[in-house]
Design brief:
Radius of gyration: 21 Å
Shape: globular
Strand order of the largest sheet: 7-4-9-8-10-11
Number of strands: 11
Helix content: 25-40%
Number of helices: 11
Order of helices and strands: HEHEEHHHEEEEEHEHEHEHHH
CATH architecture of the largest domain: 3-Layer(aba) Sandwich
């Protein structure tokens, strides 16, 4: 038995802590994982059931032992590429000494003012011309001053037009980092440096889950979620009710921030959420 792309993606979500509706996980491979105890079914009421992982490490070990998959993320990427060779397949599913080498890694950055930085032991000034940004490939050697706040921008449109949102960050020295391309490189870099992190995303349930699952879990003492002071007014005037109802059933981790808890209470009070693009001046 091998994992199809669809099932591999579902298992990856389960490894990341997501609960999936049991109705979407009808497959012999999933059934076997339930029987073997690495997945479990959670019943909610009389008709709803969700599938969740019993433990990330147990599931990873199970995939390696039963399917020979030692890197599920790489396995998925290779299938999506559509050009997996037999050598690739052996490397991903039959030899733990071999691993995929990513030739395109890193993240996009931007600033509002010139910022001194170091990359590969060379100093340079970060200051892209308007309409451009800088891609940092060798993020392992990328260093910036400790007082700079890393601002993770969730949506591409906000990142592209970051200068029209400068008024939001007047009290800090920000370095803006785009969430796209979506990889784990940003989290790895944040773990290595001492800088504080500010998550600048949508004001909805999905953004809270992204913040906790992708960033907060790596640097809980240095990560905060940006919430505008006028959020309630913005929800009233520009909130999205259909999106609220679409997302309200999303499972969230245990919240550890009173500000985020209050934000979620505002969602429920107004039955609306807010997309961050509304903060771009001129929109």
């Amino acid at each position: 038995m091998k994992l199809s792309l669809t099932i591999a993606k579902q298992v990856f979500q389960l490894m990341e802590g997501t609960k999936l509706p049991a109705s979407s996980c009808r497959n012999p491979a999933i059934d076997q994982m339930l029987a073997d105890g690495v997945l479990q079914k959670q019943l909610l009421g009389k008709s709803k059931a969700y599938i969740l992982a019993s433990g990330r490490d147990n599931l990873a070990l199970y995939l390696a032992n039963r399917f020979g998959i030692t890197d599920l993320d790489a396995y998925i990427s290779q299938i999506q590429d559509g050009d997996m060779t037999r050598a690739d397949a052996i490397a991903l599913t039959g030899n733990s000494k071999l691993k995929r080498v990513r030739t395109f890694k890193g993240f996009l950055i931007n600033v509002l003012q010139p910022l001194d930085a170091h990359l590969n032991n060379q100093s340079f000034t970060v200051l892209p011309v308007e309409g451009s940004s800088i891609f940092v490939h060798d993020f392992e050697t990328f260093n910036i001053p400790d007082h700079v706040t890393i601002v993770g921008v969730e949506n591409p449109e906000n990142f592209r037009r970051i200068r029209k949102q400068a008024y939001l960050f007047a009290e800090i020295t920000p370095l803006f980092v785009s969430r796209y391309p979506q990889t784990k490189d940003l989290a790895r870099w944040l773990e290595r440096i001492p800088n504080n992190y500010l998550h600048f995303g949508d004001f909805d349930f999905a953004a809270v889950r992204i913040f906790y699952s992708e960033i907060h879990c790596h640097i809980p003492d240095r990560a905060t979620f940006y919430i505008p002071k006028q959020l309630e007014q913005l929800l009233t005037l520009h909130g999205n009710r259909p999106l609220y109802y679409k997302q309200m059933s999303l499972s969230l981790p245990e919240l550890q921030d009173g500000r985020i808890e209050e934000m979620i209470r505002l969602f429920h009070r107004h039955k609306k959420v807010l997309e961050q693009e509304i903060l771009i001046k001129g929109v």
